[in-house]
Amino acid sequence: MQPQRFEHAILLHTSHSGMEFPRYYRAMTKRNARPVFMVHDLIPLTHAEYCRPGIADIHRTRIHTALRLAKGLIANSHDTRHALEDEAQRAGLALPPCVVAHLAPGVSAYPSRPAPIGTPYFVMLGTIEPRKNHWFLLHVWRELVEKYGDAAPKLVIIGRRGWECENVIDMLERCESIRNVVIEEANCTDDQLHAWLQHARALLFPSFAEGYGMPLVEALSSQIPVIASNLGVFHEIAGDVPDYLDPLDGPGWIARITAYTEANSVERSEQLQRVKRFRQPTWDAHFSEVDRFIAALD
């Protein structure tokens, strides 16, 4: 049987899976469907040290194949688009038409819920993997416990254990000083996530690299303060709303967390005022950009 040919079609592919296979593009060509890909990040190329072995080569093949064969690319941030431009130049390839469309948060409005615990706590949200910098934050928490004892705030880690994170697991399972202070939530429902975020002193986001940063968007959209790494993409999305720190500035993180723990924290109150002017990305704006982009493709 001959594959069905469409008169005019766009295949909108929203994951990285499949981008590396030329046969995928050939199949689309036979059907007269033009592929447009969403690119979420180039972290395996720019920060291979935080990824599993072999992922850099696979992702490079994905990106280079897309650069050669895609009819258009959608980047989730200007930071990702700049990385695409740099990689295209490095590889001697032309950059296909490309648009930036920020992603909207996945957390909907929820009614107010009781606090999950009765003591001050902070939340870290995301899969446990090297670039998220959990290990650093666990050492920060050990310092907080040594300094403040029972008065130290709790740390709630929401996310499953990922890859190349044995040192983090060792800390979680063997470090006695943080055993009753760090709470690990590997399987969290949307309702539970909202409850944890709603009453947190702040979301902590000390990543070394991000293509976008959905936890930051979700927290600020819920009017929750954020203390984050000083990454360009975070500034792009959130402007001056969060408090930014170097991801390896231990004393700085300890000082900021200590300040935010206080019941009448001036620093936290100031960010709560800034959060009011955060412009939450919306799906209407996202798809307006995407629709205009697709309509303009030759």
TrEMBL record:
Pfam families: Glycos_transf_1 (PF00534). InterPro entries: Glyco_trans_1. It comes from the Bacteria. SUPFAM superfamilies: UDP-Glycosyltransferase/glycogen phosphorylase. Residues 118-240 form the Glycosyl transferase family domain. One of its GO terms (molecular function) is glycosyltransferase activity. CDD domains: GT4_MtfB-like. PANTHER family: GLYCOSYLTRANSFERASE WBBK-RELATED, MANNOSYLTRANSFERASE A. This is Glycosyltransferase. It comes from Burkholderia arboris.
